[in-house]
Amino acid sequence: MPEFPSYEDAASKFRDELEATGGIFFDARSSDELPEILSQILERTGTTEFYWESEEVFQKSAIPYRLRDPEAFSRQHLVFSYHFKGKVEFPLVLNFKPYDRATLAAVPVSVSRAPYGIAETGTIVHSVTPGTGRLLSVLPEAHVVLLSEKDLLMNSVEFLDRTQLGELGSALTLVTGPSRTADIEKTLVLGVHGPRQWYVVLTS
Amino acid sequence: MIRIRSGAASALDNPQLQKNMSAVIRTALHSRDNSVAEVANWETLRQYAHDVKEHTLARLDSYLEQLEERVVEQGGKVVWVENGEEALSFITRLAHEKNMTKVVKSKTMLGEEIHLNKGLEAAHIEPVETDLGEYIIQLAKETPFHIIAPALHKSRQEVSDLFTEKVNMPPTDDVQQITATARRILRAHFLTARLGITGVNFGVAETGTLVVVENEGNARLSASVPEVHIALMGIEKVIPRAADLSVFLKLLTRSATGQKITSYVNFINGPRRPEELDGPAEFYLVLIDNGRSKILADSFLRQTLACIRCGACLNVCPVYQRIGGHAYGSTYPGPIGAILTPQLLSEEEAPEHPYASSLCGACYETCPVKIEIPHILLKLRERVQRKKNDKASHIPLEKWSMQIWGWGMSSSRRFAWFARLMRAAQGWFLKEKGSRIELPVLNGWTRHRDLPTIPKKSFREVFKPEEKGN
Question: Which chain A residue shows the shortest CA-CA distance from B19?
Fold first, then answer.
């Protein structure tokens, strides 16, 4: 197997590569900044709601939350938080809607948590797991990914070494930056079918 | 029979096409070269990928069976078909059974090869191309001009005019706006289509994973939104291990667009699973032969099937750069098309393809899996010639002239005699001003190039008297 590169500072390599593809990077490794960063993202997208891919996002990223109506909640729901005047405060208060195509198609910004990031190319691994779907991260105009620094790998060889591809779920995607095309005169345009805005927040 | 000559001539006479092509191809070459130069062990990667492909192609049957087994384990269905007709009849039958009237398609060259859209339309199923370039081509009722950039030959103005005419877009030269229009229209198709069709870049035998590489997100949507997903895969696309994907992806994306990786690399492992919230309920992998196993039979020509469809050999080819993709008259243009087309069809059906090359070797130098395209071209020329020679009506003009040439050149006396004869004869062909020769038979050569006149005295004749004078 030919050699693949490693980096002393994987986080800054990841950031450089992500930004080169038109993605937007936030560093939330020094704790308390996450609500402030999320508020900034809401401002950039011009919206007041985040749609969260699963409870795992909160648990693994240590985001405090409570359900507005815990009795009625099931894993089959689309979970969202509403932020008055675009200001994000913890704990998040979660509401839910049915997980159907029409609702999904109207989601402005979604948030997921990545099992891995790949420094060499600024890539995020997105995987469908029980209780999540394929569409929430690809239909909206903007998507936010939370990635923990300890899940940042050097290159795709490391990723494939650690993962049994079929075991994660029926669909797994390596996502690098926003959706793009250069089909007309090789001119770059972002946001063809997938998200135009692509945010990655690195947490500790 | 597919001819290249007439298409090539009309491409050469089309100044707008020449202008559109040259700028875009220059950009593509530049991106690829810069990107490849960043990778210190590029040659090692190429050789590795070449070896993996060679190994796999020699054991294709067992790897395909392994792939089938894994796909089935994950709840997918595998359909083996011999040719395009069988593939089409499977797809249309399935769609009819389920009352599906529309298909969202992401880019698949194999789909082009089997004329999928035509077949779907004939069965009253509406195919919707969702890759921007393919969508443009579909609106224009053309075929792809390039393996990875189907609408490369169209200027933004031409695309704008097309959208204005076909989908009522206000005229614009803003590429963003054209793209936004396509997004809006195609999103509506995605949300209503019940059948999605994609191609496959790599099928991993070990894990049953189908890998689809793209930038726009349309393949991801085609494989995710509809209730049925059909993946079309040429049998040569199987690779043994997931670990090798790192190498192939790096080679593919850098060669194709100069990207370190594309925006999306989709790994599909069958249909939606019980706890998942969406995804297709049914997944079909259609394994298509369509002439490939015939190519496998020759252990040298077999490497043609190692191609990963990056399109780098097109951009670098001096012939493609001039005549463009449509002149090749078949699905695969450029050097790879020149070797693939006559093998997928037959030498009789594509006799000109092996000759659409100057044998400069740039395609081999750039090929990420080191396919020896120039050698394969020679081998195919030999086949074409052999078939010609075998015909009873064949007059071996070329053979005779080569024999006469050989006889003349093998003795200095005969050579001098020939030269004198030519000098005397050239007077008949000289143009009025007398600086170049126009040949009546070989004018395909002299129309575009100067053949200088033969001087009045040969070197020997000039040299001799001076020798005496000393």
Answer: A185
